[in-house]
Design goal:
4 copies of one chain form a homotetramer. Chain A contains 10 helices and 14 strands. The first copy, chain A, starts with a strand and ends in a 16-residue tail after the last helix. Chain A has 348 residues and is of the alpha/beta class. The model of chain A has no long low-confidence stretch (mean pLDDT 97). At the A-B interface, strand 8, strand 10, strand 11, strand 13 and strand 14 of A face strand 8, strand 10, strand 11, strand 13 and strand 14 of B.
């Protein structure tokens, strides 16, 4: 079989670079072009130093893009919808890593992003990019929109519980602890090392945009509110989501085990991590750096009906580039784990 | 006036060392003796390298203790109640940094610490050590029991809200992010640097012992449940508590400002930190290293009745040694801030 | 072709775990047994959490070892020579990751390790494990002894210069900056997180044992002294060696480029990293986490005859497990990079 | 006595903020004005969050400066010499924290800073700001120029050895490991957290400007070359200098002890740190955060005539603001340690 010819638009950012790394080593893929207006003409290893000696690709401009099989979009929010007309004719399939086509409902864009969507008629054509929820639709999809990193960690933790209707839908409190790479590669005073180092910074106590995705994916026809806060911690990659869920029935930890096993038992990228002893009893994001795993653990509060669900991902992998490749594999019928085998490092 | 003669029992631990640092520089105090069985005879700077060239004190044994004005106890949990008979005759006043006399109710020790208290009749004689809540009692107290670090950060954040009865008392979810010094100076695999480095470790999703203190101090005759979880992050000193409170009435952020100002406006160690812009919009524990501040900020969730309250302390200072000195100053009628003037460092 | 059957003795340590990760994913290898006396009977993922869902292997004891093609030894220093009699009959080939067979000369063990070697007659049968220096001998070798991590970073930086005789052999000063994983997985007060965090610790200003290897490999019949110091920094994996070399002739930076290109131009794991601008002008160990690269850069001091050579590796990879697999590939005639393709992560 | 009235020009930078913190708590000082063009009119706590509730000072402009007793200059390099005409009439005494008046020789500015000095005739009027070397001159000085941070750590380590002439003056190799605050508060891609985090970055292998100061202060009429390199490590504050010195005579460690004791025995801010065991055998910069200490340790290489001298400081304190206040105390005849008593934190 001929390799699938892919190009990456916006390949100089963190997620774009991670995608490029994955696709360069993907056995079924040939990377054709990678664009960056700022680094036009420069070798990709100038921006992604881990790719030194791995490729001789150089960045081209968006106007140089040629037709290919799949176009991955790694542009800043707002850019994809603005330029989508340019991209649609270039490729049979498009996987967008931005937030531009994540929400099904144009109204939600006004509410959460403060602007009317430019191409609301396209929203229904994009499949929301979490394969564990939308695998069947992906198989025949032309367009996939990758999920937000915090949304991915949260939705995967809560999905079985909300799907089954076992929770008080309006009481869940979620706190994510995130690394600095979530902010992207654009410098700012807030990410200046002497300022950002060692932070435990409550950067978004309320109003985080990813809430829109969570509520969309967990609704199942019901109204719900996710009470979400985000805190930056000393880390570059990684998300740890701690979800405090209030059960509407009596469950044992064994019941919860069964539930997660039922939903995720065959998923290669979801691991239930819950150990009685040892050094890593619950999910730990640092172990997932470079991997596509979402590790999920939990503990029942003996004093109340609270279930604490802990989930971890690498925001650039399962939270962005890795999940995009996972969707890509489904779209083409490849093995689920192709190109995503890296198990992560320990110690790290 | 003659200096107050103080001794520290159990001065080789992290909190004991911090206490020693504070008391050595306290203008009204003379440090008489410091004990450590393990480091008996050694200069204190061997264990607390920041005290090099600051003192020539050496550690003595508990049996060498002589009478003094105030005895500070920095022993591991369980030791203080076991040896209290030995300490009571030695000093007019005792300030205990352990958990041994924090709870008013002997039953609570069985429930939370799994053992009957050895001296339940003493519990009522100890004042719970948060001066902002118990200043009046401290003025005439002989015995003070320092509050837990996570409890201090949480209680100070929630106290005005619970006192006024403005919240759904059973719905509050609190998540603390803590540094590695909370675990003390005893080595373990879990605190081995290659393992602990870069962690976002859900070490106590439910069942943390400090909950007992929180519920004791926030009850005001009412029943309540604090849904508490603790996560370790990459940091040595510091606690950030994020409290998700659900209001039982409609409040504006201005109302919340007023409330905190009313309760804490004259407190020298509490600062309301809430800024519209800038790099430190909310409390940040790293800025508090070495200080006795508790910084408190908040944000109202526009979508619901959730109020997110963010509070930060240095666990070894406001969470232990600093708060003990603050109580000491009250007991002797000294200026509130004596010996606690250090404002903290920036950048750090 | 049948897979090569390998077993790892001492697989619960950091280097052993890394080796196991590499061999599990090596397409030509079948991992037969892994030993650990302490974790006997436990699944390997209990100790190496990155291997969850990757293997169902459990640890066995040394006495359970069966014959195989290659035995990798990951035991603490001193253990391999003590038990070598037990291992020799089990496998045609042995690759030892400890220091036990690194030095050619039994006298050196007395001098540097303070003890007579137990099996001096075997020393000549082990090839020193840096493939870039000993590839030809490895092709027919039965026994390979992996090089020390600091030694590898230093020797690869200095080899071309010493081989050509372009330097004052007695004047080189080398300083390595190392991460905490170099100390292994055994806990100690010095590696307790609150102590070790943020350190810049001069742990071995003089007398480091790896000097013996450096001077052995760089001698070329000449006497020489490497003035070596080691400092621990805040990092888990990685070594950065800064070598201050004093040239005995006038060279331009272009000459130095040529030299390194001549020696290493065809080596897949050595990259010359020296850029005029950009964020990663010189080698940076964090970029190499999980990779087998040794990146080398340099700068000539315009004011003197000093050449500063900067080299970086991942101590557990090119400094241990990765280099062992590199040697393994040579011994079996496999592609140089088989099983070692991971390019590293960015950002990290 | 009336307090000394001081103002700080350029008080929004890291060193300026540190200076402000020290002077606000200095019992003999009244801070009159602090300037910042960028933050004109804003409260200083907006920029220096550790000063919240400590002062109500706001930034003014340089043109608003009024006469005072001492003017501290915290401007970027080049600005002080450009505007010095404006400052001279304002205050009897000036202490400049920039590099503008550090070098005695105008030629050196051309060589190291690439530009002719604008006011070479003033250079001789500035005393180089290391009190341990220039205390006598400071007593009557009107102008003091603070020393560079790396220069301070290096010079204090080497001064006794060079003064006595015990070393090969041209062979010393110095490597400093520095934190990110050395780069100041101006953002850059290189200091973007995801890039700078976890770095061991060889940012100045040769050609660092502080070499000029080192060679000036260590010359004693002799020619000398300091072979200097600087590496950034994961840390915000702190410098560790490792100096590899080659002795021209046979010395024991006891001789070196005596030497340092002779030179520094009465210096309150220099501590000889060299212990046989324990966790902090040599100087460690993290222990010095917020302090004015320079800790110095050493080890003789048993194999050669190399002496490794290890010195640590806080770059913003002994390397900038603290040392400036130390000089100020001397100029006014105050106690050496006034305002500089903070002993540092442990653990940290």
């Amino acid at each position: 079989m001929n390799p699938i010819r892919v190009s990456i638009v916006g390949a100089s950012g963190f997620a774009g670079g991670e995608l490029l790394r994955l696709l360069l080593f993907h056995p079924k893929v040939q990377v054709m072009q990678v664009t960056s207006e700022r680094y036009f003409g420069k070798p990709v290893s100038k921006v992604h130093p881990n790719l030194r000696k791995q490729t001789s690709l150089t960045f081209c401009g968006i106007d140089d893009l040629q037709a290919c099989d799949v176009l991955f979009l790694g542009l800043p929010h707002g850019s994809a919808q603005k330029q989508i007309e340019h991209f649609l004719p270039l490729a049979e399939r498009i996987i967008d890593l931005s937030a531009d086509f994540r929400l099904n409902d144009a109204e939600s864009y006004k509410k959460w992003y403060g602007q009317a969507h430019r191409r609301p008629e396209l929203l229904q054509q994009f499949v929301y990019g979490i394969p564990e929820l939308h695998r069947e639709e992906m198989k025949s999809a032309r367009y996939v929109s990758s999920a937000g990193c915090n949304a991915t960690a949260t939705i995967l933790a809560l999905y079985p519980l909300y799907k089954e209707g076992w929770v008080h839908a309006d009481r869940t409190v979620v706190e994510v602890k995130v690394g600095s790479s979530e902010g992207g590669n654009k410098v700012s005073k807030a990410s200046h090392h002497p300022i950002r180092h060692g932070c435990v910074r409550s950067f978004k106590p309320t109003g985080h945009r990813h809430i829109a995705e969570m509520e969309q994916e967990l609704a199942f026809g019901q109204s719900l509110t996710i009470h979400f806060s985000a805190t930056s911690v000393e880390m570059v990659r990684g998300v740890l989501a701690t979800s405090h869920v209030f059960l509407n029935r009596s469950l044992s930890e064994k019941d919860v085990w069964k539930l997660y096993r039922h939903y995720y038992g065959k998923e290669p990228f979801i691991r239930i991590v819950k150990e009685r002893d040892g050094l890593y009893r619950f999910p730990e994001p640092k172990l997932l750096a470079g991997t596509n795993f979402c590790d999920i653990g939990f503990e029942l509060d003996a004093r109340s009906n609270r279930l604490v669900v802990i989930s971890a991902i690498d925001n650039l992998m399962k939270g962005a580039a890795g999940q995009a490749v996972q969707a890509f594999n489904i779209m083409y019928g490849f093995e689920k784990t192709t190109g995503l085998e890296f198990p992560g490092l320990h110690p790290i």
